[in-house]
Amino acid sequence: MSTLQTAVRRETGTLLQIEDLATHFVTAGGVVRAVDGVSFSLEHGQRLGIVGESGCGKTILSRSIMGLLPRRNVIRKGSVLFEGTELTTMSLKDRQKIWGAEMAMIFQDPMTSLNPVMKIGKQLAEPLRIHLGSTRENAQEIVLKLLQDVGIPEPEKRLEQYAHELSGGMRQRIMIAMALACGPSVLFADEPTTALDVTVQAQILDLIEDQCREREMALVLVTHDLGVVAGHTDQIIVMYAGKIVEIAPTATLFSKMKMPYTEALFQSIPKLDDPSHTRLTTIGGRPPNLVAPPDGCRFSPRCPYATDTCTKVEPELQPAEPGHLFACHHPVGSDRWNEVQVSLGRRSGGH
Amino acid sequence: MTDTTSVSLPHDDRPAPKKFRQRGRFTKWISVAWLIFIVFTAIGASWLPYVKHSCDQFANEDFCSTHLDTNPLLSERPPTWAFFSETTRPVVGDAPERAGFFGTDTNGFDIFSRTMFGARNSLLIGSMSIIFGILIGGTLGLIAGYVGKRVDKVIDTIMNIFLAFPALLLAIFIVGFFDSSTTSEAKSRSIVPIIIALVILSVPPIARLVRANTIVFAQREFVLAARSLGAKNARVIVREILPNVFPAMVTFAITGMAILIVAEGALAYLGLSVSAPTPTWGAMIFGGQAKLETAWWISIMPSIVLFLTVLAINLLGDALSEKFRIKEAIE
Prior knowledge:
The structure holds two protein chains of two kinds. Chain A contains twelve helices and twelve strands.
């Protein structure tokens, strides 16, 4: 398939099928269970958001799926099926053929994710030369087109520039262009806007969304910011301490969230209609130590609704309605939840 | 608004902004000028109007001219400009310019001419050693730093073993080793065993430096980005990491070359460099050692040239490292 004519990819169905994926790091301090039994699937062209606090395993999850992590001192379990092909047992050589061509990734900090001593034009041509065997001359044309697609003014001039001559937003656009170069069917965006100005953030997110739609490319958007995923995804996975605690279509999650952790994340978003000088709501405590996660529900030490059951029995993912799963003994709307809401002086069902 | 600014800031009255001046610019350019002169002389010694001696007096034909000086110089004459003491005054009837600008040595060779021809050997040994040192040490360092694991351990251990030996002792051993295998064919020692010895001396520090830098850059996100786009390891090393490690390598190479030129001098001083009468600076200094009290110029004049050259190389190396540091700070 030609890369740049907007991909006529009308396939439907499952693109990625992740089954019980686990990634543990063996360290001097013990085994860190960064990702601990995660299962979900991604459809063609679907936009998926993965949210959670720092250190919840979001980044490790996306890198585990691609298989980018080093093999040394890493325990991997589970399966990743990409268009029916098992990735976890695939050789590095075969994975390298998929990386960039079928799945691509953009990173958090555009300041460090571009090679400081390679000209932009040359860097952008890299994936084309790796996967399509393009020569320097015919890569040039494609590169210019890519730069236009990602909204970079004066593309000819940029080809001869170095990364440090460009602004952060511009660099992230370059990264996106590089990732798009070979027309991958899924794009992993690992906190793509965290290092950018708020004004630039929106532009970059819109750009990613536009490109995904245009190229019928699936998107996995990893972020800690619920505001970012709200407008740009079809489905959201909420992760806590290496596990999925809630999965739902975006609209459902925001209107009918079940997991207290999701609720807490949601309450941490400052609201425009709050009176000024309202204290920001925070989630008390910190994500647990992943070497020795708490027994039972991993969120229980920080959960206002936690009972004895929570600290003893680990909740399984259970359906609230089709397509909406959560892992909690006392979900939002349950009796226990109402009881605590009343005792805290909040109105029950207060959102 | 704009009006007030233009009125309050009349351009013409303000003093010209002070120009940014970089520290040590003058010494840098002097160094460059001296090195250009030495390199020029090293390359063109045969064609420049230096006194030439017959090929019998040079072991290597490249370093002499076929033109035989019919009127050999008197031996152990002081430099033309040094007739300030009784002992150094030229012999009556011996025209001062016949003695040469740097004087003559025990064999009656013109020291200035030999120093200029010696530049060719000394610089050739220094630069070839550092080039091969960079090629071998750089490759080992890149592989060790990027691949890591067992490969790194093996390379690092070997480098540590080499570093544990006293450098000079190791060099003497290596020259001796390669010498014994070649003496039967050639009477004179060529520059090859000396280069080999110096390459072996320079590989471990270069490999360590490159390894350390490689480890730093291998963890940077752009390397992960390149890998996530499907770049193979060789491509990542050559296109992503090498250009980033290069500045440190060049800076080190320049300083290293100065060290190696001195090391060659040290070897020559122990009688282990190129066989006389092929001139290298070290060999010339060694040659005048016995006569230091009566004919100081035989050792001192090449020493001064060696000193100035090494100093110039070092100053240039410093200037370069400063420049690269500034460049890194921008990023």
